[in-house]
Amino acid sequence: MKRSHIAFAALVIVIILALFYLNKNSQTKPIVAKVQVSAPLSHLELPQYNNGEESIVKKGFTLVYSETYEQPVWVAYTLNLAKLIRKAKRSDSFQADRDISTGSATNKDYTHSGYDKGHMAPAADMAYSAEAMKESFLFSNISPQKPKFNRGIWKELEEETRSWCREFGEIYITTGPIFTKVLERIGPNKVAVPSKYFKTVLLYTKNQYWAIGFIIPNEGTSKPISSYMVPVDSVEKATGLNLYFNLPDDIEDEVESARRLPVWLLN
């Protein structure tokens, strides 16, 4: 065989091998956890709206209200370092929300009920603004919680999220009741008492997104917060919500399936 023919044959073989290699690698599923994102996206705290839902936008948070249960379906907000600077005093003045077209729960629903008026967006997270603080006491942001739950592990989780904000600079929080079981109904408006509550937290650091969820029974407990840590997928199954849908699909799938990540510093 002539030398030119040999060289040509060798070149063809090299090209074929290169094409095979490229084709094989193009079919390999990427490791989503290592996907780098140049900048954080916006409105990541908001779940996807369902048809017919009425969203209410406040100074410090956004919510969807349930007339059936007379409380929020979910409340979502962003917390950053600037918002941790306390500028407003706690008001403790609970009021009906006039923005709810069907009317919200009222003080009468909770009077002598044995339940605390539990914040979904905590008042302490709204202390950066007098308006945000005032709106956090609207009943569109309130759900009936057992006292030992509200003053115990729920408060601990709220404090923990603020510590994450101080460490990472900005976090996206979505929280609300879970109605797989209604314990009872209280007051003239028949406000439902949820059996559980959820909270999910998303953050962006080192060009990656990280998220974790919590599902906690509406009762007192001595267990640590980490005992109630679950993948965000589990929260979606329990609530029917589509969380973090504004993320690219591959990143959404990755952060929602993760359970324990080194970035979350829990006791």
From TrEMBL:
Start and end residues of each ENPP1-3/EXOG-like endonuclease/phosphodiesterase domain: 58-250
A Pfam family this chain is assigned to: Endonuclease_NS
Residue ranges of the TM segments: 6-22
UniProt binding sites for Mg(2+): N150
Signal peptide region: none
Keyword Nuclease attached: yes
Residues of the active site: H119
Gene Ontology molecular function terms on file: endonuclease activity; hydrolase activity; metal ion binding; nucleic acid binding
Keywords: Endonuclease, Hydrolase, Membrane, Metal-binding, Nuclease, Transmembrane, Transmembrane helix
DNA/RNA non-specific endonuclease/pyrophosphatase/phosphodiesterase domain boundaries: 57-250
Protein name: Endonuclease G
